[in-house]
Amino acid sequence: MKRVALIFLLTGCLSSLHAQYPDGKQLLDRIDRNMSSENRVFTSTMVINGRRATHTIKMKTWTAGEKKSFTEYLYPVREQGTKMLKLENQLWIYSPSTDRIIQIAGHMLRQSVMGSDLSYEDLMEDSRLTDRYSAVVTGTEEVNGRDCWVIDLKAFVPEITYQGMKLWVDRERNIPLREEMYAKSGTLLKRTELSDVERIGNRWYPRRILFRDMLKDGKGTEFIIEEIEFNVPIPDYIFSKASLKK
Amino acid sequence: MLAFRLALRNLLGAGLRTWLNVIVLSFSFIIIIWTKGLLEGWDRQARNDMISWEVGGGQYWHSEYDPYDPFTLTDSHGQVPAGLEAGVTDGSLVPLLITQGSVYPRGMMHAVLIKGIPPQQKVIELPTAYLEAGEGDVCAIIGEAMAESTGLKEGDYVTVRWRDRNGTFDATEVKIAAVFKTTVPTVDVGQIWLPLDKLQEMMLMPGEATLLIRGPEAGPPPVADPWVFRDQDFLLSDIETIIKAKGSVGLIIWGILLMMAMLAVFDTQVLSIFRRQKEIGTYVALGMTKSQVVGLFTLEGAMNSVLAAIVGALYGIPLLLVQAVKGIKIPLSSSDFGIAMAERLYPVYSLWLIGGTVAIVLLVTTAVSYWPSRRIAKMSPTEALRGRVQ
User: Fold this and answer.
1) Which of the ends of chain B has fewer CB neighbours closer than 10 A, N or C?
2) What is the reported pLDDT for A82?
């Protein structure tokens, strides 16, 4: 009888503890409201810390959801004018040195962008977490002096890059400050640290993201947002092949 | 016969000049036979090694498979066609599943092709028996070139990362069960071999393959639409092209040598006709026709190549024979070269090669000897007898 009472007590304690945590789905929705948008236009700098050298690439990107994206390289000089257009699962790259447009198969989207820790998918897609993951808040932790919810994410769609993720979400601003991406086997593959969170319009957004491939040594790839605008009108011609040669 | 004896006597009578020509010409003989023999030996060795290690008796490719485009690997896999299942069961066909991935030795990332092969296969020489699972480990084998570039050795554990058929990342640790030595870089460089069933499980592709290798002694290939059968000639065409390209470089070298030898013969002929005008006049005065005298001088020139063949045989046969038996050590490894190449190449000298080379040199020397000799036909016999320069 005592044992049963003890079990009830423990269960009660645990459920009251969980009751203090927000609902995972709602939290994801709040994150999406900060991180995702119908469209966005941003100028960014990518610092690729290689084993021997560091490369810096500056680019301007126009993105509309998951399906349309257009990027123009602004720096370095040898890459200047290179443009990439992604429509659905197809990617076209225009190189000014050859003045040719090359169509690349969808699989290319999974490849690394110029030796960075980001794939074309990572760089050019803006997808909502709620469309792909279910979430459970498992605890609280402090990241960079901010109180965070710790959330475990599990994919409910089969065609997804990372089946599992773990997020540390700023409790006040509903923005992830750290993300960990896991393989199906549970191996930690990638970690991102999001910082310099600023209020942009009616949302919080990180200006600096550090991507690290956890299976290899190195300082990772830094992604710095210099300018960003959300939900601004983007003319249709931007997402057309004609704009590649303009 | 008279012309032959005269020609031989004249030739030997010329002394050092003849022997210099003969030696240079004999070098051409030996170099031609040696380079051609080396390429022939390389071709034979490369063909044999590629058949033993990779090509087998031909391959069935999935219709989407293109070995030159790694991006096609995502789509180039499927169930083994019904008509070929029996071959897979009896071991005469070896299914291979290929995908892209990465390995992470010592904190570095290396892009690799992950290849799945049945451990019990006997069709190709890969030591796949090492892939038999050992106490919970996923066993892998790699070639020496791969081991060198990644720093991996037998017994090491390394993380392998890949994407399954849905594009989802997965990773696991594998144990390097063996490092094999091969002369075929296309089964070695940038590749890691895993048990087929394990890779199928990792990729969520049960029973699927990218290609099937046939045993070398299998009969005519059954049709297996939409899979495409690639025969040995198709699969070895790249190496043939490369060897032919290398052969053309050899051709240039021996062309230069032959030209030098021919210049010497030509020069000697011109000099002979200039210096031996009285002799030419005497031949005509004794009743030889001009064309017979032209024939005599041409024969003299052509006999240089006969003597060269004899002299070349004297020192060339032992030299080439030693190389054919002991082989020639190649300083570069096959991975440096990018194509199948053994550490030691054994030249192959066929009768066709030797006979053909002798015939070519003889023909060219005769032509070169005839060219200046034509002048004799225009000579006035009386002027020639007086020894006047014409």
Assistant:
1) N
2) 93
The torsion angles phi and psi of A73, rounded to 5 degrees, stand at -80, 135
Cβ-defined contact of A189 to B169 (cutoff 8 Å): yes
Structure ipTM: 0.83
**pLDDT for the residue A8:** 52
A108 to chain B, any CB pair closer than 8 A? The answer is yes
Same domain, residue pair B78 and B177: yes
- The shortest CB-CB distance from A110 to any of B72, B167, B172 is to B167
* Rounded Cα gap, residues A23 and A155, in angstroms: 17
The answer to whether the CB of A118 falls within 8 A of the CB of A103 is: no
The predicted pLDDT at position B336 comes to 61
Q: Is A223 helix (H, G, I), strand (E, B) or coil?
A: strand
Q: How many domains does chain B have?
A: 2
Stronger pLDDT, A145 or B280, i.e. the higher one: A145
Q: Determine the residue of chain A that is closest to B101 in CA distance.
A: A111
**Torsion sign over Cα B40, B45, B46, B50:** positive
Structure confidence by residue, pLDDT tens digits, A167-178? 999 999 999 999
Per residue in B121-133, pLDDT (tens digit) is: 999 999 999 998 6
Select from A185, A159, A172, A208 the least CA-distant residue to A47. Answer: A208
Domain residue limits at B197: 58-230
Q: Which residue of A has its CA nearest to B163?
A: A161
- A29 SS3 class: helix
Given this model, what pLDDT does residue B143 score? 95
Both tokens of residue B98?
Answer: 């290929």
Nearest to A96 by CA among A84, A114, A106, A87: A84
- Find residue A43's DSSP bridge partners: A60, A227
The verdict on B210 and B63 lying in the same domain is: yes
B227-240: average pLDDT: 90
Within a 10 A sphere around the Cβ of B156, how many other Cβ atoms? 17
* Residue partners of B52: CB distance under 8 A and separation at least 6: B124, B125
Among the partner residues A51, A155, A215, nearest to B161 by beta-carbon distance: A215
Residue A17: inside a domain: no
- Partner A contacted by B169 (CB < 8 A): yes
Confidence band of A159 (pLDDT split at 50, 70, 90): confident
CA–CA dist A175, A147 (Å, integer): 11
Please tell me the pTM assigned to this model.
0.79
Pull the structure tokens for residue B358: 């002798």
> Residue A113: inside a domain, yes or no?
yes
